[in-house]
Amino acid sequence: LLFPVSNLCGKCRPRDTDLLQPSLNFLYWSLHQTTPCSQQRAVAVLLSNVSLLELLQKVLECTWLWSPPSRPAYLSSEDALLCSGWLLVASLLLYQHRYNTEVHQTLSVDLTEVLNAVIFRNKKPILLLVSIMQFLRAVLRQNFSSSLLVIVGQNTAPSPTQPQPSSLQDTALHPLAMQQVFSLVVSLQNLLVHKDLLLSQAVVACLETLVEYLYVKNQDVALHVASQPWHRFLLFTLLSGGQKSFLQPEVLRLMTLFVRYQSSNIISQKEISQIIQEAAEANIAELPEATSCALHLFLSQV
């Protein structure tokens, strides 16, 4: 089925949402729900289809071309198609890297546009934001060096008028700039305050991947980002609702992040003891799977 469905997609235009959206979803789930052996073959089939990749290029570009003010409060068919497109491309990036699959056609993405989509949001639906963040995580994990992807809108060489420390940091973080990193971190923190479960999971995962990327590029910058005092205020905000327990997946994962990068000004021994105490008093067998996994990661990190 991958052959006819992918060929059908390649003959469509981005405006053919009624046909494209379920087709892209089928391709996405074909990648994720098959066996490892078949998965490698499925990736090869999709990446060998040049017309499909050209269609995906057009779909991604529509994210910036379709007017944000026209977006309704609910998820429109156009936004649903964009979600499917970003998720499928993120998956292709992941599996192409895993299996080192031959690439017949590259995709081009403007990094500045991707970052601005998260930083400024511009009335984008939550599911579209989550999909774009999945893509951002994929390129961060691959150090912006995927053979499937061409990054445009990169930072130019530092100006001689810029302060030298900032220039050195921007060079180390390339293609990201220091200012983009801090703007992205602040925006991720603001999105967490919405306390939407799906959005929270995506935001924390994106923050984790970003700090990992920074740590490889420049350890001082990564530790500086992880120890921002605003993080502590964010934790108190997340714990200020009806459920004050530390045993919330996004809270546990944030705590794990701060422990990993030794941000003692954000999480103290007192908070660590509180979490362990709550875990001791909880019925572990009845905890949701997301909470159990997050708790396991936290305790392992401690």
From TrEMBL:
It comes from the Eukaryota. GO terms for biological process: meiosis I. This is MEI1 protein.
